[in-house]
Write a structure and sequence with these properties.
The protein has 93 residues and is of the alpha+beta class. Helix 1 crosses helix 2. It is elongated, with a radius of gyration of 14 Å. The chain has one domain: Translation Initiation Factor IF3, CATH 3.30.110.20. Helix content is 30%, strand content 40%. The mean pLDDT is 92. It has a four-stranded mixed β-sheet with strand order 1-2-4-3, with helices on one face.
Length: 93
C-alpha cells in the first residue's frame, strides 16, 4: 500500500474511531487519505481531520484539499438534497 489513497467514510460512530482509522491508513504507507461525510456527520469528519492533523500526526500531515457539495438522495417523493464533504489529508514530503 505504498502510494495508494485510503478512504474513510464517516457515519454514526465515535470521532476517535475515524481518527484511529485515518492514522492506521497513514501508518500502513498511504500517501493520501480522503475523509468523506454527508449530512450531520460532516462535523465529525472535520473534527477527525483536525485531531489527526494537530495531535496524532503533527507536522507529518497537511490538509491538501477540501471539496464540498450536495447530493440528491431518496426516490420518488422522498428526494432531498444532502450536503457532502471530502477532506483530503496528505503526508508531507
Amino acid at each position: 500500500m505504498s502510494t495508494q489513497e485510503g478512504t474513510i467514510l464517516v457515519g454514526n460512530k465515535n470521532v476517535m474511531n475515524y481518527v484511529l482509522a485515518t492514522v492506521i491508513q497513514f501508518n500502513q504507507g498511504a500517501k493520501r487519505v480522503v475523509i468523506k461525510a454527508r449530512g450531520r456527520a460532516i462535523s465529525k469528519a472535520v473534527d477527525a481531520a483536525e485531531i489527526v492533523r494537530s495531535r496524532f500526526l503533527k507536522d507529518e500531515v497537511d490538509v491538501k484539499e477540501i471539496k464540498i457539495g450536495s447530493e440528491q438522495i431518496g426516490e420518488g417523493d422522498n428526494k432531498r438534497m444532502v450536503s457532502v464533504i471530502e477532506i483530503v489529508l496528505e503526508r508531507k514530503e
